What does this fold into?
Amino acid sequence: MPTVDSFLHVTGLIKSFGGVHALRGAELEVRRGEVHSLVGANGSGKSTLLSILSGQIPPDAGTITLDGVGMRLGNPARALVAGIATVTQETTLVPALSVAENILLGRRKVRKWSGIDWRATRARAEQVLKPLGVDFSCDDPVSELRPDQQQMVEIARAISMDARVLLLDEPTSALTDEEVDSLFSLIRMLQQRGMTTIFVSHRMSELFEITDRITILRDGCTVETGPIEDYDTDRIIDRMVGRTLAPVVRSRISVGRDSTPALRVQGLSVPGHVRDATLEVHTGETVGLAGLAGSGRTELLDAIFGVRARIGGAVELAGVELSSRRVSQAIARGLAYVPGDRKSRGLVLNMTLSENLTMAATSGLPRFRTLPRSRERAQAVSAMREYGIVASSPDSSCAMLSGGNQQKVVLAKWMCTSPRVVLMDEPTRGIDVGAKREIYRLLAEARASGAGILVSSSETEELMLLCDRILVMFRGKIVASLDRAQATDALLARYSMGQL
Amino acid sequence: MTAPIDTNTHSDGAVTARAVRVRRWAASNRFVGVLVLLIVQIIIFSLTQPRFFSVPNIRVLLTSVAILWMIALGLTFVMLTGGFDLSLGAMIGLAGFIFVGFFVNLGVPAPFAIVLTVLSGALLGGGINGFLIGKVGMPFLVVTIGTLSLFQGTTYLVSGTQTISLTSSLLDAIGFNNALGVPITVWFMIGTLIVSQFVLRRTYFGRDVYAVGGNAKAARLAGINVTRTVIAAYAIAGGLAALSGVLEASQISAASPTGDPTIIFAATAAVLLGGTVLGGGEGGVAGTVVGVLFLGVLQNGLSISGLASAWQQVFSGIIVILAVLFHQLQHKGTSFLHPLSE
It folds into this structure.
């Protein structure tokens, strides 16, 4: 039931992706002219809710009413016509065109005989931009604008389409502090003119600065909604993570702390992604890497392995320094890397299971040597048995395997190299619970056999289950190191959002 | 949950196992459709043209596709890595004059001059095309459009646009003699095919070629030296193109500066007909030679039919398009009818 002052009202939203429930009856109630923040941990269904609001995906069930009128869902153009405009972290502007052209993209003023009416186009753009008090001109090419100015052009475009609700999805993630300030003053200015804004950010301080009311999502459900004055950081984080997790009991394996670490990373930086990372992984130890999407976890792992350029810093494997950007050398010394995106980085999908399984272990051999094909097939058959890979034969194409089986192939490929240290990125993303448990079992075996493991994951639960120690990254820096005993959901969430 | 590994292949009778293997072979060798078309074509021409299925004509047919054969083999390596090489046609003419340089100007004995010419072609292909594409990361079209012009221009410069006649007993033997009743040129074709097939299917390098074309990022993450693999593929293409330049010189007993700038179109058609895909990672040289023979038989059959050459071009254009269409339908058909999933 829409209350009197409800402007945008979402009820009973349900959406699942192939058996995974992203939303289980989420609610959202936004009042006219307010800045409403939406918060939730990774996997809370926040992104799905935003995609449905902007019309990119249709929900399985649920309704959305805007100003008392029911919306047809699942169509971006209709969402725009209804007055919901989305501004995402990545701009959708055409860099080579001017500000005016971008604002009126696809709706340029055309005269009957002589093509585009530039004067009318400019006039309309000026008319939108002027009240916003921006410090750039209509004729500037977008490629020369700062990121925050580009965001403003996007917002101006939304206004020119008579948007009544602005959806700002992490608009500040690429901005500096000053740029955030200028964006916020624009949002406030729009608010005075009656614009309703839905704001998403992972930075706690920003929430308190700009928000009127807040809605917290967890596991696809709305936990609660209320005025921001009723909240502080702790309360928000408590609601975000809930108290649903049972403690996991696990035997400890002695970690060789005194000896040389299996992996030592010293002062490593990746321009734009990682700043001065230093860490150690000991033999038989599992170290976790927590942090929000975009915090630099993947880039750090890439740089350690040598597939991404790093500036400064050293990577040592069992006390011996690795030269940067030499992957085969890293593999030969005992480094393995199970990347996060198995389809685009983990496997050559159109090659067979046996070819993929042996690829890493044989990468150091002379290339003119002939393939020991029958031996490889035999190895593949035993690896299939050992790692529980379900496929009709070692000659099956990897493209035919399920996600969980593909992930086991990637893992098995690296275990064939007898690694000292295994780097893993999102080891269980997008695979079902059964395969997940298998992966955990394989990881435990690798650990028991003495490998050091550095695992990055956006699932806190997974890290707490697997790791002896958890490092937290925030905007490219390792900001905290927590022992297993210390780590809690709330603490990890807090550090991940830059609350030290 | 344990893996259901094929335990019934031994017990369940050899017949079904063989059927499964044949079906798998047909699905993994995408040129089967074109092979069928090739056979149909041979039957039609044999029935309608009495001269077609005769030893002299088959010799002519095979030697006439020798240059296309070499270029298409080399192009297959490059296309398997996901690249393309427009400069191969210009390499033919240049190689003729590299051979002249070694053989005439420096007085190197003919066999060594041939080897040095092939190595020079490999060096130019790998060192310029391969380096700029694989190491520097430039787009292959831009690079090879550049080297196409570079090689062609260099050929005109060193030749003074003159054809230079060559007298070499070895070259004449390659161009005109038979061994065991088979033209020596054809032995070259068979040799390069066997070596190419072996390299691609039986060596780590060959697997690297497929891996790089299939997914360069994953290949790199698995420790494969992607740069080296790409450079080697362009070097092989350059070397084979240079060898085809030597064959051309042997057939006309001269080095001609014109080369064959349009042969790359026929070679591309042959490679695509043979099932190697644009973008790389799938296909192979066995399919490519079926594609080459398809084009060769078409050309030969139409010309002994006494058709005006303009009509020959029109027909071969139409037939190539229809063949590709058939090939596409057939391939979609197999993957639809016989999904090789678990």
